[in-house]
Structures are given as C-alpha cells and as structure tokens.
Specification:
The protein has one helix spanning 34-38; strands spanning 8-12, 28-33, 45-49, 65-69, 79-84, 87-96, 99-103, 112-113, 120-130. By secondary structure, it is mainly beta. The chain folds into two domains: 8-38, no CATH class; 42-130, Umud Fragment, subunit A (Ribbon). It has a seven-stranded antiparallel sheet, with no helix packed on it. Strands 1-2 form a two-stranded antiparallel ribbon. The two termini are 30 Å apart.
Length: 135
Amino acid sequence: MSDVQQTLFPVFGARVSAGFPSPADDYIESRIDLNEHLIQHKEATFFLRVRGDSMVQCGILDGDLLVVDRSLPVVVGNIVIAAIDGEFTVKQFAFCEGHPVLKAGNPAYNDILIDPEGDLEIWGVVRWAIHKLWP
C-alpha cells in the first residue's frame, strides 16, 4: 500500500447532534487520512463488496464495502470473511456444542454449522462496513 497517495479530509471540532440541532463551530480542528483511520495493518487489509442481505441486522447491507483485516485473531462474536469449501461468505463467528458456526444476521437465513470434515478457512475479520445512506 506504499503506492497509495495520502489524502487528508477536514475534521470539524464540533460534534453533530443526533437529537436537537446545535450551532456548529466555524473551524476545522484537524485533518484525517481515512487510510490511517480505517486501516490498522495495511499489509494485511483488503476490501470486499457485499452481495445479499444475510447480515442486515449486523448493520451490513447489500452493496457495502467491507474493510477486512487478515492479521487479527478471530474471536467469538467477530464478523468474518470465511471460505467454506471454496465459497466466500460474511457471517458472525460463533461456537455451538464445541463446533464452529457461522451465524447469519437475518432470520430469513439459516446459520451455517461447520462440518468437522468440511473445509473452513477464515480469511479475515471485518473491521468496517461502509455504506451509502442515500442513493
């Protein structure tokens, strides 16, 4: 990623109210590089685009851009990119009765119980889901 040009965006000093409106400050506090903000381990980070709605209750929507870190250890509760018999999916990692389970974030989809004989590979932990709020 050393060939990526750094782009700094302004960060305003005031926080925006999610309740009642408040006056905004008229100054920029600092500038932020989204690479530094979103990417902890640049050599181990990759991006994927989501297709489908199986993770909507986890805040991951169809078309989202996922920021995935391959260097992080996987712990129960992480949202992960997994390959099952060569097919990629994004799911929440869990255990059930001592066996790994990939949990869907939408009740319309079944969780994926991992067969001990099956081929499961965790490709990385999802750190960020970036989605557009308005078409």
